[in-house]
Amino acid sequence: MLHRIFGLETEYGLLIHEDRPDHSPTWFAHQIRNHLFQVQRRGVLDLHHRGHDEPPGNGGFITNGGRIYLDMGHLEYASPECHSLTDVVASDRAGDLLLQRAIEDLGLSEHVSLIKNNIDHETDATFGSHENYLVSRRFPFSRRGLAPFVTFLVTRQIFTGAGRIGAASPQDAWIQVDRLIVPRATVGVRGGSNLPFQISQRSDYIVNDFFEWVQHNRAIVNTRDEPLADPNEFRRIHLLLGDSNMAEYATALKLGVTGLVLQLIEEGHAPQDLEIDEPVEALQEISQDQQRNWVVRLQSQRTISALDIQEQFLDCALRHCRGQDEETDWVLAQWASVLNDLRGDYQKLVGRVDWASKLWLLECFREAERVDWSDPLLKSLDLEYHNLNPAKGLYYGLVEEGRVPRMTTDALIQIATEEAPKNTRAYGRSALVRYLLEGGGATDADRVANPDGLFPAYVINWSIFQVRGHAPFPMLDPFRTYRDEVRTHLEPSIV
Amino acid sequence: MKYSLMSERREGPGDPMPKSPSPLEDGGGPRRPETGSPDKDSLLKRMRRVDPKQAERYRQRTGQ
Q1: Is A208 in CB contact (< 8 Å) with chain B?
Q2: Residue tagged active-site, from A19, A46, A71, A124
Q3: Which residue of A has its CA nearest to B33?
Q4: What is the pTM of this model?
Q5: Which of A76, A222, A348 has the highest number of chain B CBs within 10 A, making it the mutation to test binding with B?
Q6: ipTM beyond 0.90?
Q7: Nearest to A119 by CA among B63, B50, B52
Q8: What pLDDT is stored for residue B64 in this prediction?
Q9: How many whole angstroms separate alpha carbon A300 and alpha carbon A305?
Q10: How far is CA A397 from CA A198, A392, B1, in A?
Q11: What is the distance, to the nearest Å, from the Cα of residue B57 to the centroid of all Cα atoms in its chain?
Q12: Cα–Cα–Cα angle for A162, A167, A172, nearest 5°?
């Protein structure tokens, strides 16, 4: 996929199956994190404060170059930097597998389930799936330059959404209209349990078009300027409006199509004159449209469907990107296929588009059990779609029935739990983590002070690390592996 | 197709990105299941095992 680095960050939910006040989701998260680092030795815990809510020991980098840590009480996995869709899918699934296996190793499978979703129906809590795309520093990161991207992002949920029962409750749901943020109820958007089903989990929680915060006032485009690379060369497009996808196909398509649209914008080929009149409102209206007509109003006052907008982006991508590499052509073919199928019976999308899979399962259940949309049991089934226990999760039921196209294999996912992609800087970071795990550079004093770890002092961040006794080692170019340089850099201490 | 995880490894297919995922070959997606068909029964069995109260138990904190 051309000159693009992809990454995914996933915050997981933990569903506790017993009523014990001392066993909170955070308590389980600590057990799982400790097992991964201290028993399985998957990586090295941070020894420094990464932030006020990330004290030493909160998490760390693992041998595949990614990170596992606790963020606001949630277990979070950040994939290593990936240079292909196949790598990012395998690396994303590797995070699921690492955490699920830890639960099984701990003998906790009957006590807690790992849920890869983004909402709590009862509390209206939300937690994220964040996408990262590396672009050139020359990317037109301005309101005008990003206008086509906003239009694309508002409408892509028709094939990237994971679907949910209901909506965020009105008292917690705000929306941007005419540059003001107002309660959703005042603009007539349905909320709470009155809404049977909507196609996106996160759309209710996006209340701004551009903003830098990630916990409140979430925006369609997060504007935090944190490239985690050479700031003179790169910008990291950080998106937090998307849903966690269970379907590997949906993950690949979401990242692939978004990567191509970023390329269109970088090269000046994105479709113009498609600016949506109220993009935040449109984001929620599309998600909640029960007829799935998905019509939006443009600033020109023309109305157009999200499908037609996506077709226009696809047409541009076909004209300007087709043939550039095999992965691009796969994305273009599947983008066209999904848009075509969205014009017909949604059941054609089962297995490829998460909201369609979930809706089909719920409809099957409703039909068989004669259950009304208002039955709270459907919320529990909604959650179970995202259960990462293959013996329980409804998504895995579809996999078992052969209804889900795979984009990787179980063997490759297993490999990706341990190995970094070999064409990004994650490869060099992986070498560092292995070096530290093997006790490289530890002194006798270290061994006395820390008999379990054998670690010398170190600081590891995405774009730089330092090991005691060595100069800082910047890794400013995510496209370089730094493998040999890292080994050479660390050599003196192992002589 | 570049697949960097594949290099230096023995497992896995040569090209894990399918040219045409199998559901597309017959027009996309699964067929609507027949009532009482084994596959639908299997999925319904999974769904019937779900704790109907588990959504109330979830109780997550807001994250990012």
Answers
A1: no
A2: A71
A3: A364
A4: 0.90
A5: A348
A6: no
A7: B63
A8: 84
A9: 14
A10: 22, 8, 30
A11: 25
A12: 125
